[in-house]
Structures are given as C-alpha cells and as structure tokens.
UniProtKB/TrEMBL annotation:
Signal peptide residues on this chain, from the entry's feature table: none
Chain ranges of the ABC transporter domain: 6-239
Protein's name in the database: ABC-2 type transport system ATP-binding protein
Superkingdom assignment: Bacteria
Molecular-function GO terms, alphabetical: ATP binding; ATP hydrolysis activity
Lineage of origin: Bacteria, Pseudomonadati, Pseudomonadota, Alphaproteobacteria, Kordiimonadales
C-alpha cells in the first residue's frame, strides 16, 4: 500500500477548445497527499482547485496526466478509486424531495453498502441533523445542507474525505461545528483534504498546505514551514542622505533602493531581525528619518512564489 492517499502526476486540464484556444486550467501538476494528513489546497478564485477535485471525483475528464486514489489509478481502476474517496462538492445540489435519511440510504445503495452495514443514523447524529432526518431537504438551511453533504460523502466510510470550499456561506458557529466533526474524522484516521481561499482556515486546520495559482502548484510544504515564509516583512527605511545604490552594509539582506531616500529590506524570522537591519543602516553612516513595515499577506506570497526566483525553490 502506498503511503500517499492521493498521488497526482502531470495532471493537465484544458476546458473546451478541441480545435485550440481552450482554457488551460491545470498546467500539468504533481501533488502527493500523505495518508492521515489534514491537507489544505489553497489558492485564489480560478486557480484550479475545483478542477483538481472534480477530476478525482470523476466529474471532469483530465486532458493529460494521472491520479491515484489510495493506490488505485482513476483510469485503470475507477471503481476502487471512487470507493476510497468521499467528496463534498462546492455547490449545494440536492434532490429537494428526498429527506436526509432517504438521501443517505440512496447514496449508500449506490455505493453497494449492505443495509445492515449502513450508518445512516450515526451519520445524521454526527452532523447534528438527526432531528431533521425525515424533513424534506428543501426545508433545510444552507448550513444544514452543507452538513448533510458531508454525511452523504461519508456513507461508504471512505479513508479520504475531500471538502471543496466547505465554509462558503457558512456562519461562524456552524463552521466550528463542521470543523469539530472533520477533526473527529481525522482523529479516527480519515485523510482530510480541503480547498479554501482563506489562509487562516488552512492555517488553523491543516498540517500541510499546497498553494495552487494559475493552474500550477507553487508551494507544497508543512504549514509551519510555509508560515515562516509568510512571516516575511518588508521594512522601508527613509534616510536623509540621497541613495543611488544599496550600501555594502545592507547587501547581505534582500534589499533595494526606492526613490532617492528609501531603502526597502525584506526580513523573515529565519534570516534576520529588525535590529540587525537598523544596525547595518547605521554602520553605513545613514541617518534614519522614518521607518515603516509591511506585513506579507497571502497575495504577496502568491506573487513571490510565482516570480521566477521563487519558482525554482518551490519545484
Ligand atoms: N466548465 C468549465 N469550462 C471552461 N472553463 C472552466 C470550467 N470550469 C472551470 N473553468 C476555468 O478553469 C479555471 C480553474 O477553475 P477552478 O474552478 O478549478 O478554480 P478554483 O481554484 O476552484 O476557483 P474557485 O475558488 O473560484 O472555485 C478558471 O479559469 C475557470 O474559469
């Protein structure tokens, strides 16, 4: 058995445009999602997250490349591949005339789960919908529908649960409840993959984060490691002297001259601290007139990771 719950190699997707001019949504990505991980697939709108998930779910046909789910190739062994994954889609799609209980029973039937092995009531209780078991699905709130979709994805007890943007339109209280259940599943050994465009969400929940942007994986590393990069700050130091180039004393830092009187220096916990930078400025004989800092946000990280300098490191 492979140690990866999901293994993606050279996965490419072009939407439409059989005669050329289609939309390149995935550029041939590689991605390993370790068994037992809580994995975040992070990226801005249109990055290619849903396309990746939908290919794994068998809802979108890939253009090139391969994917294995729990060791089963999605082309060679689609039944086994699908049996090992549960997917909670982004869209809340329902047959409004089924009750939650019926919906889970039908889904279990579709996966060939024998009646005596079904866990309909257990699942409804787990997602706090037992009291709605026999209500029409159309009467459920958005949050209830989302929870029902999680229960639906788990009817065949798959070792991998994928949640595509699970908190879109979900209030804070419900979000906590949802995460509580997801954490519980994870503690019981389920590999969890969630897509989000909120860094905070991935940061709070995931042990590993991959960042996807314009159809490319631009980073994939343990959350802690990634956050160190995000810890990066830019200090802008204004000086009275006119600057034409970065003084020698500041060359060990990643720095550049902005205008006639400003130096911008990038620092992170791992390479320097503010004190060292200020000491270097003074050693250079410059007179500081002002200092400001810019925290790096996710948008900056995307920009950094997609620039050529960082691209090599990420690959
Ligand atoms: N059915 C489709 N036909 C044509 N283009 C599509 C289709 N589905 C997605 N795309 C395009 O492919 C790219 C990737 O979309 P995808 O939905 O995978 O991104 P995403 O990261 O999931 O974004 P979001 O966070 O908005 O869901 C986007 O440019 C999108 O417009």
């Amino acid at each position: 058995m492979t140690k990866n719950a999901i293994e993606i190699r050279g996965l490419k997707k072009v939407y439409g445009g059989k005669k050329g001019g289609g939309k390149l949504a995935l550029k041939g990505i590689d991605l390993d999602i370790p068994q037992g991980s809580m994995f975040g697939l992070l990226g801005p709108n249109g990055a290619g997250k849903s396309t990746t998930i939908n290919i794994l779910a068998g809802l979108v046909n890939k253009t090139e490349g391969s994917a294995k789910i729990w060791g089963f190739d999605i082309d060679d062994n689609p039944r086994n591949a699908r049996a090992n994954i549960g997917i909670v889609p982004q869209e809340l799609t329902f047959d409004a005339f089924f009750t939650p209980r019926e919906m889970l029973e039908v889904q279990a039937g579709m996966y060939g789960v024998k009646p005596e092995e079904r866990r309909t009531e257990e699942l409804l209780k787990a997602v706090h919908l037992f009291d709605k078991a026999d209500a029409y699905s159309r009467t459920l709130s958005g949050g209830m529908k989302r929870r029902l979709l999680i229960a639906k994805a788990m009817v065949h007890n798959p070792p991998i649960l994928v949640l595509d943007e699970p908190t879109a339109g979900v209030d804070i209280e419900l979000r906590q409840m949802l995460w509580e259940y997801v954490r519980e599943l994870h503690a019981r050994g389920t590999t969890i993959v969630l897509t989000t465009h909120y860094l905070e969400e991935a940061e709070e929940l995931c042990d590993t984060i991959a960042i996807i942007n314009h159809g490319d994986v631009v980073a994939c590393e343990p959350t802690e490691q990634l956050l160190k990069r995000i810890d990066e700050k830019e200090i802008v130091i204004s000086v009275s002297e006119k600057l034409t180039e970065v003084p020698d004393e500041l060359k060990p830092f990643s720095s550049d001259v902005r205008g006639d009187h400003k130096l911008a220096v990038q620092i992170s916990q791992v390479n320097a601290n503010v004190g060292q930078v200020l000491a270097a400025v003074q050693q250079a004989g410059l007179t500081i007139t002002d200092i400001s800092t810019n925290e790096t946000d996710l948008e900056d990280i995307f920009l950094q990771l997609t620039s050529d300098k960082h691209k090599d490191a990420a690959e």
